[in-house]
Structures are given as structure tokens and as C-alpha cells.
Write a structure and sequence with these properties.
Elements: H1 14-26, H2 29-37, H3 61-65
Region (Disordered): 46-66
């Protein structure tokens, strides 16, 4: 089972957005569960993350939402 959570904070400087994302992550019970049960990674880049660590690609947006 793979669980993904995307927190997107826009309209601020990269350093502030990264600190805000860390704060939200640490105070969310969902992410605390994921941190305890899964390996995670974060990125300071605003580029698109096109796949998972194990080599699988992200699903198309229409498939992911429906």
C-alpha cells in the first residue's frame, strides 16, 4: 500500500514555504501516521515530481481524481 500526501503552499518565498510545509506536516495526525509507517522524502524544488522512488510513475491526473 502506498500513501501520498501533497501539501502545496504558494505565494511566498521558498524558505517560508518550506518552513510552513514542515510545520503543517508535523502537526497533522495523518502525516504523523505516514511518517511513523513509511519512508518519506521532501523536496525544496518547485519542479514536478514525475515518479516514485521505486520507479513507478505518477498516474494521469484524470485517473488520479476519478
Amino acid at each position: 500500500m502506498q500513501s501520498n500526501l501533497l501539501i502545496r503552499i504558494v505565494g511566498v518565498a521558498p524558505e517560508i514555504a518550506f518552513d510552513a510545509a514542515k510545520t503543517v506536516t508535523l502537526h497533522s495526525w495523518v502525516t504523523n501516521y505516514l511518517i511513523a509507517s513509511r519512508t518519506i522524502f521532501s523536496s525544496r524544488s518547485n519542479g514536478d515530481m514525475t515518479g516514485f522512488i521505486d520507479g513507478r510513475k505518477n498516474p494521469e491526473i484524470t485517473k488520479a481524481n476519478g
